[in-house]
Design goal:
This is 2-oxoglutarate dehydrogenase E1 component. By secondary structure, the chain is of the alpha/beta class. The chain contains 28 helices and 24 strands.
Length: 935
């Protein structure tokens, strides 16, 4: 089984070769070894096998006996198959004993025709479960031990024979019992005790404080340590965790070894960062950390990604970070060194759509991380909601069957079983590089938080919980009965650990952080900008004529043996003319020049989104597809030094945007871009925008340079194809957190992309990208604007040379409407009207705007014109800022006036005639060609 067994398209650098068979073919099907999915054999084959086995054993059997024995063997094999498929339904999983566990009829030998004396007759099994021959009674006893104990395994939905066989070899057979050495058992008990006593200590010291404790699920602690230990032995050198609230503080302390004193300091209201770092901070059960742990001489680096209360939102961020780290460690071919581990709640795993989005990424080219280990803390309740009201499936983990991930259900009161499940899971992941799920059934000893009263809604469950011994008490009694520990050993462990916690508690009172950790490692050399205004000036983003010409050849040369589409051939002819004449450079060419120049300078460039390879509007053509055999050629991958990647993503916004945010956070030396098919499709990822992109730096001190490309512009295409909801991004702007641009010049787009990487800091960049301007005759740039002394312009004047002193009416705007204004102004011969575009809306370019306004000594009217409805767009954001710039320029008392569409519940009309009438009216209003509309 190769590493790309689950990838329908292999990972290729630069060029995708022709794929055998249809593009949607599954290379894991059909099965190649002749076995069917049941593991049973046909009657003829079974008769032959029985006859050979009998002869080998020296038993003479007549044809009738052979037929009878073969029939019994087939029925026995069907019994085995039934246990493999459904044995988990009879597993002892619920520590509280509330879940009904009747043995399904088809798991009984009688159902398969075995009863009475037949139970003690030997049947031929041919090595199944380790038996050549066995009685049905022996077979059933072994099957129930293997499949109906404290671990229930679901894996028969997996198509691949080798994966099923791998799991069967580890769970089937009379000798397959969960075994740990006495020292291993003591270590497991110690980890469970640390988890329990830590929660009790916090509850005692910080009465009434929310901590979302792990109480009831402490078996997770030794299990996660097993992932580190056994993962390290199998090649893992880095683990990236993502998890929600429950048990987070316990994982931070007892798995990731975040110092107890630091956590106690934070519980007392202190910060884990120095006083001069700034930022809003966040509640302690949202925070992350990073550390190293060592087992058996192997060091594993671990990081827990910070996340908000949106329970599963961190999942794609973790996966994106892992993908970036795998690229940095040259681990994309084996996916061996960097492991993603996601910890879920049961209700969230079943209920949140982003869980499926992330599972769907697991085998997709460009997003595959070589399998994720999912650990579900199955409380059997979500806040106050019981499972029957929280999902339609028997288990919270059932969604994972969609990607054929094996699922290990395990009883959380048996820490050995949970640890075994994690050991098996990491071995499976490292072998097959596929997702796997551990579903740990446990309980939540208290309410949703420690101040919540769960008895309001689940009185019977909580009556049972109050009477139920803690995990360590259950396990310690078992170990004492086995003679592994004395009856007092567990109490000594608790006492010693509490003494340590008391010491750390005292140390926490005087704790003071020395430094923040956000500019270490790959981020070394980068820093926080000195201020939002001057730090963005004088960034040298121009390229040399030599590089410009070289990139031109790369972007226009069709390699021998490639037959391009006839329309693409015309596009390339036009590009050659641009480079020959030095004029007419369009948006797509400017973008390719930015990408190519950054790659040539050693940066990585990663672009993903729905149809990003060609471009939604057939503008980009980053990938050239041969018209005869469909092999692909990507010109920018032929450049030396850096790496260029472009991926057509799955049809997801939330998951993919989160993935790219995670990638950008891990690798600041790669320009990471996510492109929406249309701008307002970003609505589907609003959680990522609000909770991570806009606020992640303030909350968690995590800088990020992600670029969002959002097609935006009003062209009569209806409400869903017009607005990227510029107003929402502007409302999020504060504390120099993000950058928002609405760019109209190809050269300016080139410079803003290069600026994103060439500055010594990273901020998310939101660009309202154009649609009609992709090919607009006025939206062109000359070659000189890319070279020598050129740079990004935060404001741009119109194409007509109007002396500032002659300007009486200034129309300020942003985006496509500028060209409508200029065309109409010139057609009307208005020589005292100037149109100035704000290419960057945040950080607001107040200084250059004021400098420009100061030169307009005859200014009488300032208009803000926008295409968007009044309650949308930039008006409410820019109004006061324009007034401040006017005051700074000596025009005190002058205020801007609005010209644009009326407020509207819908972003745009879907009627072409209505759109055109509205557009003509707002342009005329802005230019003073009609009486001013009332505000």
């Amino acid at each position: 089984m190769g590493n790309d067994a689950h990838n329908f398209l292999p990972e290729l650098d630069g060029q995708d070769g022709p794929q055998p068979g249809p593009s949607w073919a599954n290379p894991r099907w059909p099965l190649t070894d002749g076995a069917d999915l049941s593991g049973a054999m046909d009657p003829t084959a079974m008769r032959i096998a029985v006859e050979k086995a009998a002869a080998k054993a020296g038993q003479a059997m007549d044809p009738a006996a052979i037929t009878q024995a073969a029939d019994a063997s087939i029925r026995a094999m069907m019994l085995v198959r039934t246990y493999r498929v459904r044995g988990h339904l009879a597993a002892n999983l619920d520590p509280l004993g509330l879940t009904k566990q009747d043995i399904p009829a088809d798991l009984t030998p009688e159902y398969h025709g075995f009863s009475g004396a037949a139970l003690d007759q030997k049947v031929y099994l041919g090595g199944t479960l380790g038996f050549e021959w066995a009685t049905v009674r022996e077979l059933v006893e072994t099957l129930r031990k293997n499949y109906c104990g404290h671990v229930g395994c679901e894996y028969m939905h997996i198509a691949d024979v080798e994966e099923r066989r791998f799991l069967q070899e580890r769970i089937e057979g009379p000798d397959k019992v969960i075994q740990f050495t006495n020292e291993g058992k003591k270590a497991i008990l110690g980890a469970v005790i640390r988890g329990e006593e830590y929660e009790k200590f916090l509850g005692k010291k910080y009465v009434g404080t929310k901590r979302f404790g792990l109480d009831g699920g402490e078996s997770m602690i030794p299990a996660l340590e097993a992932v580190i230990k056994y993962g390290g032995a199998m090649g893992v050198r880095e683990i990236v965790y993502g998890m929600a609230h429950r048990g987070r503080l316990n994982v931070l302390a007892n798995v990731m070894a975040k110092p107890y004193r630091v956590i106690f300091h934070e519980f007392s209201g202190g910060s884990a960062n120095p006083d001069d770092v700034g930022g809003s901070g966040d509640v302690k059960y949202h925070l992350g950390t990073s550390t190293d742990r060592e087992f058996d001489g192997i060091k594993v680096h671990m990081s827990l990604v910070p996340n908000p209360s949106h329970l599963e939102a961190v999942n794609p961020v973790v996966l994106g970070k892992v993908r970036a780290q795998q690229a940095i460690h040259d681990d994309l071919s084996k996916h061996e060194k960097v492991l993603p581990v996601l910890l879920h709640g049961d209700a969230a795993f079943a209920g949140q759509g982003v869980v499926w989005e992330c599972l769907g990424l697991s085998g997709v080219r460009g997003y595959n991380t070589g399998g994720c280990l999912h650990f579900v803390i199955n409380n059997q309740i979500g806040f106050t909601t019981s499972p029957q009201f929280a999902r339609s499936s028997p288990y919270p983990s059932d969604v994972a069957k969609g990607v054929q991930a094996p699922i290990l259900h395990v009883n959380g009161d048996n820490p050995e079983a949970v640890t075994f499940a994690c050991k098996l899971a990491i071995e499976y992941r490292q072998t097959f590089k596929r997702d796997i799920v551990i579903d740990m059934w446990c309980y939540r000893r208290f309410g949703h938080n420690e101040g919540d009263e769960p008895g309001f809604t689940q009185p019977l469950m909580y009556e049972r919980i109050r009477a139920h011994d803690r995990v360590s008490e259950v396990y310690a009694k078992r170990l004492a009965a086995e003679g592994v520990i004395s009856p007092d050993d567990a109490d000594h462990m608790r006492y010693d650990f509490n003494a340590l916690l008391e010491q750390e508690f005292e140390a926490g009172k005087g704790y003071k952080a020395n430094e923040a950790d956000w500019f270490g490692g790959r981020w070394s050399g980068l820093h926080k900008p000195a201020d939002p205004e001057t730090a963005r000036r004088n960034v040298d983003t121009a390229i040399s004529p030599k590089l410009f010409e070289s990139l031109g050849r790369t972007l226009t040369t069709i390699p021998e043996g490639l037959t391009v589409h006839k329309t693409l051939a015309r596009v390339l002819d036009a590009k050659r003319e641009m480079f020959a004449s030095g004029t007419g450079f369009d948006w797509a060419t400017a973008e390719a020049l930015a990408f190519g120049s950054l790659v040539s300078e050693g940066f990585g460039v990663r672009l993903s989104g729905q149809d990003s390879g060609r471009g939604t509007f057939s503008q980009r053509h980053a990938i050239w597809v041969d018209q005869k055999d469909e092999h692909k050629y990507i010109p920018l991958t032929t450049l030396p030094h850096g790496k260029f990647e472009v991926y057509d993503s799955v049809l997801s916004e939330f998951g993919v945007l989160g993935f790219e945010y995670g990638f950008a956070g891990a690798d600041p030396k790669t320009l990471v871009m996510w492109e929406a098919q249309f701008g307002d499709f970003a609505n589907g990822a609003q959680i990522m925008i609000d909770q991570f992109i806009a606020s992640g730096e303030a909350k968690w001190l995590r800088a990020n340079g992600l670029v969002m490309l959002l097609p935006h512009g009003f062209e009569g295409q209806g409400p869903e194809h017009s607005s990227a909801r510029l107003e929402r991004f502007l409302q999020l702007c504060a504390d120099d957190n993000i950058q928002v641009c609405n760019i109209t010049s190809p050269a300016n787009y080139f410079h803003v992309l290069r600026r994103q990487m060439l500055r010594p800091f990273r901020k998310p960049l939101v660009i309202m990208t154009p649609k009609s301007l992709l090919r607009h005759p006025m939206a062109k740039s000359d070659a000189a604007r890319f070279q020598v002394d050129s740079h990004f312009m935060r404001i741009l004047s119109d194409k007509t040379e109007i002396a500032d002193a002659k300007v009486e009416r200034l129309v300020l705007c942003s985006g496509k409407v500028a060209y409508d204004l200029m065309e109409k102004r010139d057609a009307e011969g208005l020589e005292n009207v100037s149109v100035v575009r704000l290419e960057q809306l945040y950080p607001f370019p107040g200084e250059p705007l004021a400098a420009r306004l100061q030169k307009m000594t005859g200014l009488k009217d300032v208009i803000w014109c926008q295409e968007e409805p009044k309650n949308n767009g930039a008006w409410f954001f820019v109004e006061s800022r324009i007034e401040q710039a006017l005051t700074a320029a000596g025009h005190a008392g002058m205020r801007p006036r609005y010209a644009g569409r009326n407020a509207s519940a819908s972003p745009a009309t879907g009627f072409a005639k209505t759109h055109l009438a509205q557009q003509n009216a707002l342009v005329a209003d802005a230019l003073g060609l009609t009486p001013a509309a009332k505000a």
